[in-house]
Amino acid sequence: MKQRTSVFRARAVLLVLVISLSFLLGVTAASCTVSPTSTTSDGLEDVVITLERTACKGICPVYKVTVTGNGTVIYEGRDFVKTTGRVESSISEEKIKQLISEFNDIDYFSLNDSYTERVITDAPDAITSIILDGKTKTIQHYHGDLNAPEELTELENRIDEIVNSAQWIE
Q1: Quick one: which of 45, 67, 143, 168 has the fewest CB in 10 Å?
Q2: Rounded average pLDDT over 138-154
Q3: Rounded to whole angstroms, how far apart are CA atoms 165 and 170?
Q4: Whole-number Cα distances in Å, 12 to 9, 15, 20
């Protein structure tokens, strides 16, 4: 009976520890959310736009670009790029508004969350996302999916153009 009581107590203590740890991890995760600071006007402070290009079977550039509403551009080069590692830059408020306009022009929030049919193999993915007006949307686009709207590919290219990704890639 004493052994059963000890096992019961050990399980109860373990359960309390697991619940406490879960609570602490939840609190920690909630306090670690990215919240870009800004001095910009027009409610741009909460805007976050990303473009990530993934590997293919060849030598496709692998990198990620993040743009925040205060104009900060964070480039993270991984493979087959001129600049590897993290680089910080900035763009103007006008260019941020231009990016937002590009998303709005293709009605980004109404597009599918993914276009990943493997019709053509060995192509890279482009993953775009935007946080705008409290809404978040991410789209995974496999460049071998022939059903993806051409406007999505154009948006991906426009993001690169507006932030001048070429300076780190080529």
Answers
A1: 45
A2: 97
A3: 9
A4: 5, 5, 12
If we measure between CA atoms, which residue out of 21, 150, 128, 141 comes closest to residue 65?
Answer: 128
Domain extents for the chain? 1-33, 44-169
CA distance 140 to 8: 48
Q: Which fold has domain 44-169?
A: Mago nashi protein (3.30.1560)
CA atoms within 13 A on the CB side of 156: 23
For the chain, the straight-line distance linking the first and the last C-alpha, in angstroms and rounded, comes to 73
DSSP state of 110: G
pLDDT digits (tens, 9 = 90+) for 56-99: 999 999 999 999 999 999 999 999 999 999 999 999 999 999 99
The single residue listed with the structure tokens 């780190």 is 168
Cα 54 to Cα 125: distance, rounded to the nearest angstrom = 5
| Helix (H), strand (E) at residue 6 | helix 2-31
- Which amino acid appears at position 110 of this protein? S
Prediction pTM value = 0.75
**CA-CA distance, 40 to 152, in Å (whole number)?**
28
Q: At what angle do helices 150-163 and 93-105 cross, to 10 degrees?
A: 180
